[in-house]
């Protein structure tokens, strides 16, 4: 079994960010099953949570920036995400008190060392991989990235620069913790000396220097430290690509070949891949495109379509900030059971309304049977909402469903639904 993993204890790191030059203290915290990778900006009011997923990408210039809006961002997430993907970490909370993780030596080495020294633990449920039905090809402006169906993740990366110190480099690597640690994690970022002034003018590379980037001149590398690998440049490109690929929100089984990759193309490719993979995963904004529910009644964060029109898994993080906890109950907050039933029904809605002819319609409950509330659900829990369509006619159907927390059933029920045209009042 290939189970989900998190870290065994907290890791505290601090340092300067590559582009902003800001000092950031970062705490990596163990997270529950199905939490995913999320950043928390603890310096901002209400401590906003930013899931590390492609729908939150806000910037791709010389690094990948994610955020909820222009005031709630985290810059240059790729070296940390690459370390997490390389080490096989599925669930992690990353608390930052500023807007960019520390760059350290310009590679993923420090993240890897610190995570390994804290330890990695298996959790009690399997990983769910993105699996491809057929090859997915992305081609633009001389960049080509292709994903072929495969049993594991393997990456072939190729770069070509019109510069004698780089010229053409290529590497193929099976991605597993051993290869990542030994062959990829210590490859440093790089830039050309003539670019530095214009980067700084654009407000980038403010924290950059010879201690955290390889700086390439006309005929020599300016750093005193010698190259860590003869083809360190292409190894770092692979490191970046792996970090960007993790913004799919799940690990991937594929053989990827990438020629002249870079953050903008990587993210475009991830977005294309996310639409075409067999186990399509919808993030919050995509869910809103599919169902009419909105805050405070939107009860799901992400949905994985396991089989079209047949089965799906929804996820909802009960953060503790939800309004109902104030009154249900004062001093003893638990999630109202009926809202768990609602969350199960909304997961079914996403599945049913994904059918093109039902887009824009409204789903209503027809009946609910066999409801059992088996365990209370507390703030901080991740609800896993598994639904199975028993039968579906044109506009109505019947569903079996179970909600889990930490691998144990908390609620189950069967329900009937009907899909109707919206009514204006
Ligand atoms: Zn990089």
Walk me through this protein's architecture.
The protein is of the alpha+beta class and 425 residues long. It has two domains: 3-276, lpxc deacetylase, domain 2 (lpxc deacetylase, domain 1, 2-Layer Sandwich), CATH 3.30.1700.10; 281-420, Hotdog Thioesterase (Thiol Ester Dehydrase, Chain A, Roll). The protein is 20% helix and 36% strand. The chain is built from eight helices and 25 strands. It has helices at 78-87, 109-118, 177-184, 196-201, 232-245, 263-276, 284-290, 337-353, and strands spanning 3-7, 11-16, 23-30, 37-41, 49-51, 57-59, 65-69, 72-74, 92-96, 120-126, 130-131, 136-140, 143-149, 153-160, 168-174, 190-192, 214-216, 252-259, 281-282, 302-307, 311-317, 362-373, 382-392, 396-405, 408-420. The strands form six sheets. The protein has a seven-stranded antiparallel sheet. The protein is globular and about 75 Å long. The model has no long low-confidence stretch (mean pLDDT 94). Zinc ion (ZN) binds at residues 78-79, 189, 236, 240.
Count of domain modules: 2
Mean pLDDT: 94
Strand order of the largest sheet: 19-20-21-23-24-25-22
Classified in CATH, the superfamily of the largest domain is lpxc deacetylase, domain 2
List the uncertain runs. Answer: none
From the 3D structure, determine the CATH topology of the largest domain.
lpxc deacetylase, domain 1
Q: Hey, roughly how much beta strand do the residues contain?
A: 35-45%
Which hetero compounds are present in the coordinates?
Answer: zinc ion
Calculate Rg over CA atoms. Answer: 23 Å
CATH class of the largest domain: Alpha Beta
